[in-house]
Design brief:
Helices cover about 20% and strands about 20% of the residues. The protein is built from 10 helices and 18 strands. Strand 6 and strand 7 form a beta hairpin. Helix 1 crosses helix 4 and helix 2 packs across helix 3.
Length: about 375
């Protein structure tokens, strides 16, 4: 493939203004219900979006105003902190997601959370540090847990997939890209789990699976995402084709062979592909059928993303998350986040048996896992 780097850049700048969330001690959000009364909600839809003015907040859809005193709003003896919110109403994001199969929540994460993510990734201002490879990311810093439980993206994912019961297919993971040396293996074009079109892995969803949406990928821009810095490449809108990327673009299955780049160059990087450029703290959601690949970092700065594959509860996870959840549950992070965040993360990371008499969490058999991991016992995954 010619190394032309001619992808179309879709660029998002840092917004000049944001809405406000009012967050209680338990992590729930103050909002106005359909009956017009103030209440707290776990879901972050339009009901909980406020616009901050001098000395007050005004509800984004009803116009009702409440006074702000020392950065807090009171209701029936409970206090809610005025906190960083989204650029757009959740309903506006959902319209874009439905129309396009992807959406960018620009700078939806607070600066404090972004700083914590960069500490774990050891990038940007923390690039001189060495990452902790002994613990999963979600057990290392509250910022990872808060990002995994980010409420607006979770509401959008549930709406898009048409079910409140969603799960992660793997625990949140940092993906770091260093400068490309022109020789190293690269990722080819593919569609994400559970479709895995273009990927050399068993269990791929058949092409043309029907109207069900079986996956949403949630990519968090920990570093600024730029074309030259290795931002993810997409074929935006390709989810609607309901088929995998063409072999001629260079699929992940082809680039799994370590010699393939030396023989064929980079995967397709021409003008029919897209690069989404966005500041750190942005979250890009996209239908998992969307063709994409990791970018090529042509700078000296490491680029970090936090990746999460989201699926309906009825789709099996990509990997066993038992150890990851146990590490997180035993860490300080578990006690330092809010009740809402803990509840969300348990639902996202632990698969539960459906009801009596089998209450409990689904798990794996360690002996069986060891057995099938023996050489020749199974097919290698991707």
């Amino acid at each position: 493939m010619a190394e032309q780097f001619a992808e179309r850049a879709v660029t998002y700048e840092r917004p000049e203004r944001f809405y406000t969330l009012l967050v209680g001690a338990d992590g729930r959000f103050l909002g106005i219900g359909a009956d017009g009364t103030l209440a707290s909600f776990a879901a972050a839809d339009d009901r909980v979006i406020w616009d901050r003015r001098d000395g007050e907040v005004r509800h984004a859809t009803t116009g009702r105003s409440l006074p702000v005193v020392d950065g807090m709003v009171g209701m029936d003896g409970e206090r809610f902190a005025v906190s960083h919110g989204p650029e757009l109403l959740p309903s506006e994001y959902l319209r874009l997601f439905e129309e396009n199969g992807w959406v960018c929540l620009t700078c939806v994460l607070s600066g404090e959370v972004v700083d914590g993510l960069r500490q774990v990734a050891c990038t940007d201002q923390y690039a001189d540090r060495e990452p902790d490879r002994t613990r999963v990311a979600i057990s290392q810093h509250v910022a990872v847990a808060r990002t995994a439980a980010e409420p607006i993206s979770l509401w959008l994912i549930r709406q898009y997939m048409g079910t409140p019961d969603i799960s992660m297919a793997h625990s949140p993971a940092m993906a770091i890209l260093t400068r490309d040396d022109g020789k190293r293996p690269v990722q080819g074009w593919h569609s994400d789990y559970p479709y895995h079109w273009g990927v050399p892995a068993p269990g791929r969803v058949p092409v043309q699976p029907g109207a069900s949406r079986l996956g949403v990928q949630r990519n968090v821009c920990v570093s600024d995402f730029t074309k030259v810095g290795g931002a993810t490449a997409f074929k935006l809108g390709s989810h609607a084709l309901n088929e995998g990327p063409p072999e001629g673009w260079g699929t992940a299955a082809r680039y799994a062979a370590r010699s393939y780049r030396a023989e064929h160059g980079l995967p397709y990087n021409g003008p029919e592909a897209d690069i989404v450029e966005a500041p750190g703290g942005s979250i890009i959601l996209y239908d998992s059928r969307t063709w994409h690949r990791a970018g090529v970092n042509r700078t000296d700065n490491k680029r970090a993303a936090m990746l999460q594959a989201m699926v309906p509860m009825y789709v099996m996870p990509k990997v066993d998350m038992s150890d990851a959840y146990k590490q997180y549950a035993a860490s300080r992070v578990h006690s330092d986040i809010t009740d809402r965040e803990r509840t969300e993360l348990e639902a996202l990371l632990v698969r539960r048996l459906p009801g009596p008499p089998l209450h409990g969490a689904l798990g794996t058999d360690p002996e069986l896992v060891a057995l099938v991991q023996k050489p020749g016992a199974g097919q290698a995954g991707y």
